[in-house]
Design goal:
It is a single chain. This protein is an alpha+beta fold and about 650 residues long. About 20% of the residues lie in helices and about 30% in strands. Strand 18, helix 6 and strand 19 form a beta-alpha-beta unit. Helix 4 crosses helix 5 and helix 9 packs parallel to helix 10. The longest helix has 17 residues.
Length: about 650
């Protein structure tokens, strides 16, 4: 209903203003440009920042489920246990460690008084529960001594009221896995898990876990359904993972190591997240990676989304914004071998070492990986030296593999120029460029790639987002001005599809209570998620990318900001459609005349408008005011005119 009201208001606004709108003629030429829009043109960049994985897309609801954080009891509380006491009236928990194991810690719980001892987990800024939804609860337990006969697990709301509880009978000797199912009697955003015992004695406990049953594709211990659905709806051409700066780590010891993310979930070794202390304004010491979402799951997600998997690996350089720690060139071989082994894991048959491991995890068929990234956002001579070694080794064994290299964190400057110069000499295939800048910069750089070398490396616009205040400011907003400016810039990316073959906004996700960086494409809390205006811009471009570039011009020039208008056009040969994208960054409506040449357009036109009453407007959890509005109209053959509101993105689609 809100969309319908907004549509009526928008239509009325356009009608009242059309008499004052300035006419602008666009010539649409249907002659072949022989430029293909790559299926990878619009993709997804995933980084575990802003609680994107643990506490986000990875649907586990228990924080520090295996007591593996550097502070093993972080996230856990014993309300009736005192530090300087024998706790004979309740009980206490002690952490035991076996350092030879990757899952090194477990909890030894001594219960003296089962009426008073309780253990509580706070979840990731609380535990989100939906009324009548079911949740799988499990834990590993070893009954050491005494007469403990049951574990009683309860989910409680913010006031301590029980939402659901389940008793689990304890029997047998040695470590055993126990499980039960909760059914929530109410919806709670910030619930907690409480554990009590029947009987007194000593037990060892590990891997205390809680998952919603309603996950993406119904997979046990899987991914959060609403978040993955938003990714699926983007129709992405690729999924880049796992980052981002977490690939590099603050130190090399804290870099992302993909081999440690495979196999049994319980045996995947925890690692503190780089972003736990990345920004002084948002310190999050409880931000860890359990790797329940590991490389196998990333490949599986890519397959689910119909997207090309694009893993990025460490090139032996820690984040240059942190320590910049380097591996000596003569010691780089293990890092290179990791890249070769990853390709075998993704593409090798079941008789290879790593292909067999993939098969044993449940995917005998190869993932058919075509792209791999060497390093993330590195710069300078040290990076170029290391890139050369990786490139030579990868292409010697896998000549068809496409390698992503990097031009550093900035879209210009000394290191950017140096990186491009050297990578051109090395005949690099695809160079990753990043842009975090103002709305003005994005609008003024829509023609950035018009003069790029057509015979040089292709471009991956791997990270970009308008910064409404300034880069790294916690006050940056996902407002309409930022999304509109990104749309203007994206017309330039698409118009130069012979150079730019991959693009992705960044970062992807942000937890409303656990973020470190803003702006972000999708915001979520423990119960809900919402799409930003930036998301809808990405969706409109990706869902309408077409297959072949067409020429659309004004006075024989590309439409890249003249009179604050931007435009691009494509043909979708699969659906026999012509798609025109027009962005108006002006504060007034415009009348656009489309003059088709060498092409015959159908009479039925689908018009989609994305706009907002004010540039400062945003979406939120209560309401997504800024969404595309679609309308079917009829046009005559030949020239036709159409209105585009002030500050809006217009998509025209016709057969």
């Amino acid at each position: 209903m809100r969309n319908k009201i907004f549509t009526l208001l928008l239509s009325g606004f356009v009608a009242c203003s059309s008499a004052q709108a300035t006419k602008f003629t666009l010539d649409l030429d249907g002659s072949p440009t022989n430029i293909k829009i790559q299926p990878t043109m619009y993709g997804i960049f995933f980084e575990d920042i802003n609680f994107a994985a643990d506490g986000g897309m990875y649907a586990e609801l228990i924080k520090n489920r295996s007591f593996e954080f550097d502070e093993p009891l972080m996230g856990w509380k014993q309300q009736n246990t005192q530090t300087l006491s024998h706790n004979l009236d309740s009980g206490f928990l002690t952490i035991y460690s076996e350092h030879s194991k990757t899952n090194k810690n477990y909890a030894r719980i001594t219960v003296y008084n089962d009426k008073k001892y309780l253990l509580e987990n706070e979840g990731f800024r609380g535990i989100g529960l939906l009324k009548d939804a079911k949740y799988d609860f499990s834990f590993d337990l070893e009954n050491v001594s005494g007469n403990i006969s049951a574990v009683i697990a309860s989910l409680i709301d913010e006031n301590g009221e029980v939402i659901s509880n389940v008793p689990i009978i304890i029997k047998g000797e040695g470590w055993q896995k126990y499980s039960a199912v909760f059914s929530a009697s109410g919806t709670v955003e910030k619930a907690k898990l409480q554990i009590t015992f029947t009987g007194n004695g000593v037990v060892n406990v590990d891997m205390i876990s809680l998952f919603p049953q309603d996950t993406w594709k119904g997979r046990k211990g899987g991914l959060r359904k609403d978040l993955v659905q938003k990714l699926y709806d983007l129709q992405p051409g690729f999924l880049r993972f796992p980052g981002g700066c977490i690939v590099e780590g603050r130190t090399l010891a804290e870099r992302y190591q993909w081999k440690k993310t495979l196999g049994n979930i319980a045996d995947r070794e925890y690692l503190i997240n780089k972003w736990s202390s990345g920004f002084a304004h948002r310190l999050t010491p409880d931000y860890y990676q359990s790797f329940g979402l590991g490389f196998y799951e990333y490949f599986q997600l890519s397959e689910d989304l119909g997207a090309e998997p694009l893993p990025i690996l460490s090139c032996g350089m820690a984040c240059q914004f942190n320590t910049g720690e380097l591996v000596h060139l003569e010691e780089l071989n293990p890092f290179v071998q990791d890249a070769l082994d990853l390709i075998e894991f993704a593409n090798g048959d079941v008789n290879t070492k790593w292909g067999k491991i993939r098969s044993e995890m449940g995917h005998p068929k190869a993932f058919n990986m075509k792209y791999i990234g060497v390093g993330n956002e590195q710069w300078g001579e040290d990076y170029i030296e290391r890139y050369q070694i990786f490139e030579k080794a990868i292409h010697a064994k896998y000549p068809d593999m496409k390698i992503i290299s990097g031009s550093g964190p900035s879209p210009d400057g000394e290191f950017f120029d140096y990186g491009w110069k050297e990578l051109k000499k090395l005949n690099a295939q695809i160079v990753d460029e990043h842009y975090y800048n103002s709305a003005k910069w994005f609008q003024e750089n829509a023609a950035r790639y018009d003069k790029y070398d057509r015979n040089g490396p292709k471009v991956f616009a791997g990270e970009y987002a308008v910064q409404s205040v300034k880069t790294v400011s916690p006050d940056n907003r996902n407002n309409w001005e930022s999304a509109l400016s990104e749309a203007a810039f994206m017309t330039g990316l698409e118009r130069n599809a012979d150079v730019v073959t991959m693009t992705s906004y960044a970062p992807l996700f942000a937890h409303a209570d656990g973020w470190q960086w803003t702006p972000d494409l999708i915001w979520f809390n423990n119960l809900q998620s919402y799409a930003t205006p930036n998301y809808y811009v990405q969706k409109l471009f990706s869902n309408n990318k077409g297959t072949d570039l067409l020429t659309i011009s004004h006075n024989k020039n590309s439409v890249s900001g003249q009179d604050k208008l931007y435009a691009t056009a494509v043909k979708d040969s699969k659906n026999n459609q012509v798609i025109i994208k027009i962005v108006n960054t002006d504060h007034k409506n415009r009348s656009i005349e489309i003059n088709p040449k060498n092409i015959k357009l159908g009479q039925k036109l689908i018009k989609t408008i994305l706009t907002a009453p004010a540039l400062s407007d945003e979406n939120n959890f209560e309401m997504e005011n800024i969404q595309p509005v679609e309308e079917n109209i009829v046009i005559k053959n030949g020239k036709f005119s159409i209105e585009i509101p002030a500050s809006s993105l217009l998509i025209l689609k016709t057969k």
